[in-house]
What we know:
Blueprint: E1 5-9, H1 13-24, E2 28-33, E3 43-47, E4 50-54, E5 58-60, H2 64-73, E6 79-81, E7 86-90, E8 96-100, H3 111-115, H4 122-137, H5 150-156, H6 161-176, H7 185-197, E9 205-208, H8 212-215, H9 217-226, E10 230-233, E11 237-243, E12 246-251, E13 256-259, E14 261-264, H10 268-274, H11 284-287, E15 310-313, E16 320-322, E17 340-343, H12 395-404
Parallel strand pairs: 1-2, 1-14, 2-10, 7-15
Antiparallel strand pairs: 3-4, 4-17, 5-9, 6-9, 7-8, 11-12, 12-13, 15-16
Amino acid sequence: MSGPHVAVVGGGLAGISAALACADAGASVTVVEVRPRLGGAVYSFRRDDLWLDNGQHVFLRCCTAYRSLLARLGSEPDTILQPRLEIPVLSPGGEVSWLRRSRAPAPLHLGAALARYRHLSPRQRAAAARAALALSRVQPADPALDRGTFGEWLAQHGQAPETVAALWDLIALPTLNLRAGEASAALGAFVFQEGLLRHADAGDIGWAGAPLSAVHGWPAERTLQEAGVEVRLGWRAQRVAATRGRLEVEAANGGGLDADAVIVAVPHQRVAGLLPDGAIPAPERLAALGTSPIVNLHVVYDRRVTDLPFAAGVRSPVQYLLARGHVPGRPRSGRAATGTAHRRPRPGPGRGLDRHRLAGHDGGSRAQRPRGGPRGAGRRRRAGDGGRRGGRMTSAAGKRMRRCA
Length: 405
Ligand SMILES: Cc1cc2nc3c(=O)[nH]c(=O)nc-3n(C[C@H](O)[C@H](O)[C@H](O)COP(=O)(O)OP(=O)(O)OC[C@H]3O[C@@H](n4cnc5c(N)ncnc54)[C@H](O)[C@@H]3O)c2cc1C
């Protein structure tokens, strides 16, 4: 290619997207990734006969950039997108209440679900509806909003702590990765407006129907190759040096990569250490962003515990539960997990999944996979079929779920 040479540091979803965008615009692109695989935080590893996933539990219909990436990678058929938002919300007492949108336009599409939401009293539901309407009118870009927490904003708008825990945090936690009391009010307003209050279908939930690596990293390797992007795995960028108008990405093991432009797509704590001095005005401020860990707990049951593909939990330490497949060799049994796990995908012609061995965790053994990736590996359902496997939870299943919680 004759265009400028762009080096992309980091082969996670951001680096993959950036590399494809640059290649599409005519640049010659090299991606360097320290791990032996692409996908970054979104990957799968294998334990016995199970593929277990890390990262990216769910996405929303309004995540248009992410969905475009899936389309570009050819992975959309490996995901499931609800035709209409539908969240079963469980509590340790065994009560199940559904948050379902109706066909009404936003924000009325959630009115009926809120009116029937049994984890709140009628008074709390009415107050929540008033707060939602108020929230739909605020300006997320207002700097004053960013000075307080979302929890403070909700309290000022009549939301009791129980209402925040049983309703607002159901959405705040998976989207902001913080409870309302810790998150910025501006970000809270943005997420609720974009995801729930502006467009009726924006909050429809999607998830992977195949191991995350089969949906992201493996097809990315093939797609980048087809786009003419060079991918260097196991390549740690040590520093980006700027000399006489040229940039060089220096490798940790010596060596380097000349580039006209460099895109740094690594976790924010690592950015300042890579960039040349003076590249950004106050690099120390990146450290002030902090982090908020997500804990995945994979639980394997010896029997089916739920027919729900996923559920939210209130008044429980389990915030979300995702159920995946069943244990091989135990036909009528099932598993539930707060993380995600898949039965080993059936290998198809040319997929050779049986030969794959993924790292147990980062830094473990290298992925061993035939070049090109297992296109369509683990494909089970088409997007848009709703992913419902068995209707509502039975009370017996509810009891088992309580044990799980
Ligand atoms: C458990 C978990 C659950 C999640 N759930 C969801 C969810 O439900 N919905 C959702 O939207 N998001 C979710 N996320 C977040 C989502 O997965 C991330 O936001 C996204 O994957 C980040 O992608 P990224 O490319 O920005 O960064 P990363 O995935 O972190 O990619 C950065 C890459 O840079 C590489 N790198 C770092 N330093 C160097 C270096 N010096 N040289 C070369 N390479 C380097 C790293 O190895 C990595 O591959 C979840 C994340 C986790 C961990």
